[in-house]
Amino acid sequence: MTRPVRGLTRMCFAAALSAAACAPEPYTRLNAPPQGEGDSRPVWADYYTYHNDQAMLADMSIADLHFVPHSTQLSGVGQARLERYAELLAGRGGTLYYDTAIEDETLLASRIDTARQFLAQAIPGQQRVELVVGPPGGRGMDAREQLSGQAVAKQAEPRQNAYRLRKYSTEGDQ
User: Residue 67's domain spans which residues?
Assistant: First the structure.
């Protein structure tokens, strides 16, 4: 009788251990986005900074989306864009264009004044940055350029060559 009790005890003990081992993990929320800034910046971000700056310098514009709707307050995107323009234009100044569909002259004048005040605070010693109403300054891209850009984007590029400028010698042995 001792053997069956001992065997039964062992089985109960094994069942208790396996039940404890199969316990679910503590509840974790899977649909919540991470909060705060990420740990590190991707390596490829530096490659795109130059390209974004060149595009912004070609465009030289702000738009209605850079303001909180129906107000003169800059949105977060507008603050970021004007801060970047302040960095890019600090040494030489320039003209920014406000591309808008607003017909209310008072709202338009107030928004331009808000953007000018922001730029005046952001640029030390303030190089002259004008802000005028008008279309973006860049010429844009015609259909032929856009199609050739799409064709280039579809081509495979080895990772070791991607996003790197190649240095060619001046002796012609490219």
Answer: 45-153
